[in-house]
Design a protein that fits this description.
The complex is a heterodimer.
Chain A lengths: L5 E6 L8 H13 L4 E6 L22 H5 L8 E5 H6 L12 E2 L6 E2 L3 E4 L1 H10 L2 E4 L1
Parallel strand pairs in A: 1-2, 1-7, 2-3, 3-6
Antiparallel strand pairs in A: 4-5
Chain B lengths: L2 E5 L8 H7 L6 E4 L14 H8 L3 E5 H6 L12 E3 L1 H10 L2 E5 L1
Parallel strand pairs in B: 1-2, 1-5, 2-3, 3-4
The chains are: A alpha/beta, B alpha/beta.
């Protein structure tokens, strides 16, 4: 189909402190329903969105972290994470959630679509995208 | 005379924590809340700055915000004390005034 576009969602904000992370997730899920080719990049404080172990039981806020794990089921193909942003925050991929992906038609499976990338790759990925949404 | 300085922004996105440390007196208290709690993490580019403040100031972080942001207890910089909402109120009461760094 010629009307499929490459959508990139650029996430640069921490979860909870502002509404950006939650809004991005909402738009990603809506966009996924339109069968576009969807990828996400997490950089700067956005990498905190993927840190596992969030507990909002004492915060009176909805814990929307589990929703990220379902992104593969919505057809999101790649979750890229900027390596330098992780390092500046003392984080490694070990600290991040894993998100599985499966193509229900071809039964192709990927155990984890969360992938650390360096700055050159980030620039290339954004350049190759036809639409970039910033959050 | 001592003041309580609250910081609610990530140290990686804004200089609120840096300013709070720069412009607070020895003996004052700094309380990290909301995205400010990221400043309590070990191993980050902000760690040395926070450790420097711990020399002559007390640094606290709000536990519920630490938990929501998935920061484990063993990843908190040594010397930073976690407080709950009641502890927050106690700090406000124990200090002369509250200065918020937004």
């Amino acid at each position: 189909m010629s009307d499929i576009k490459k959508f990139m969602y650029l996430n640069r904000r921490a979860p909870y402190g502002t509404i950006y992370a939650w809004e991005s997730l909402e738009v990603v899920l809506i966009g996924a329903a339109f069968d576009q080719e969807v990828s996400l990049i997490f950089m700067d404080d956005g990498v905190f969105q993927l840190v596992k172990g969030s507990d909002t039981s004492q915060s009176d806020m909805k814990n929307f972290m589990p929703t990220y794990r379902t992104l593969g089921d919505y057809g999101v193909r790649h979750l890229y994470v900027d390596k330098a942003s992780l390092e500046a925050r003392g984080l490694t991929q070990e600290d991040l959630i894993e998100v599985a992906w499966e193509d229900f038609e071809t039964e192709e499976e990927v155990d984890n679509i969360v992938e650390p990338v360096d700055a050159d790759q980030v620039a290339q990925l954004m350049a190759e995208s036809e639409v970039v949404f910033s959050f | 005379m001592a003041d309580l300085h609250t910081v609610n922004k990530s140290p990686f996105e804004k200089n609120s924590l840096e300013a709070a440390i720069k412009f607070s007196l020895a003996g004052s208290s700094i309380l990290l809340i909301e995205d400010g709690v990221y400043g309590a993490m070990k191993g980050t580019v902000a760690e040395d700055m926070v450790k420097g403040a711990l020399g002559d100031r007390k640094v606290y972080a709000l536990k519920s915000d630490v938990m929501a942001r998935a920061i484990k207890a063993d990843r908190i910089i040594d010397g930073i004390e976690l407080v709950d909402y009641t502890g927050f109120v106690d700090l406000v009461e124990a200090n002369d005034k509250v200065q918020a760094w937004l």
